[in-house]
Amino acid sequence: MSRAAEGPKESSRVADWLRNQIIDGERAPGSKLVERDLATEFGVSRVPVREALTLLDAEGLVTLRPHTWAIVREFSPEDLAELDEVRAALEVLTFRLAAQRRTTAGLARLRDALGAELAGARAGDRVAARRAAADFHEIVTDLAGNRLLSELSQTMRSRLRWLLGQHDDLLHVSEEHNVLYDAIAGGDVAGIEDLVLAHIASSHRQRAEHQRALRDG
Predict the structure, then answer these.
(1) pLDDT tens digits, residue range 100-150?
(2) Which residues of the chain does CATH 1.20.120.530 include?
(3) Whole-Å CA distances, 97 to 150, 183, 188, 190
(4) N or C: lower Cβ tally within 10 Å for the chain?
(5) Where in the chain is the domain with CATH 1.10.10.10?
(6) Long-range contacts of 199-202 (CB under 8 A, 24+ apart)
(7) Domain 77-216 is in which class?
(8) pLDDT (tens digit, 9 = 90+) per residue, 198-215?
């Protein structure tokens, strides 16, 4: 491909490709990302690769290093604690608003995401199940119907999708999402906060188990 044919669209394609690999766990935290190697792998010049890495740095998924390379971000315990705190604050509000403002069309989208998540979990397809689980949370944000909340969530979207993928018990997560769906569909505004906080606590335990499994090989 000629450099004249490259542009913002090509940079976006490279960013999408790398983002998915990082979120899906194909590139582990700490992995080195060299512009030259990525350009060869993706069949582009180094310019869109450099622009993609800059974008992913802004999203919090990579850390830029001198001399045309970067690393997949390694989240420290402090980083994860801060993400958990922000996630808890946002999701309690998000799910409460979704239960208040649910729509027939929005609930149908949630059911579709749940179906995809459950199908992936039953098939042992970790990528499909985890992506659908993250989709579920983003659809709930849409249902909340608050533009400012959506903007805040968008700034953290990549980091939250990575965080939401740090689990291995796929069926358990899909079951918890089903309980949350029932609360939204039933308009259980009073009870949904406890369900959300329990889900976040469960996610924290799942992440710790996932990290132990990675360390133990």
Answers:
(1) 999 999 999 999 999 999 999 999 999 999 999 999 999 999 999 999 999
(2) 77-216
(3) 12, 12, 10, 11
(4) C
(5) 3-72
(6) 200/84, 200/87, 200/88, 200/91, 202/172, 202/173, 202/176
(7) mainly alpha
(8) 999 999 899 888 888 877
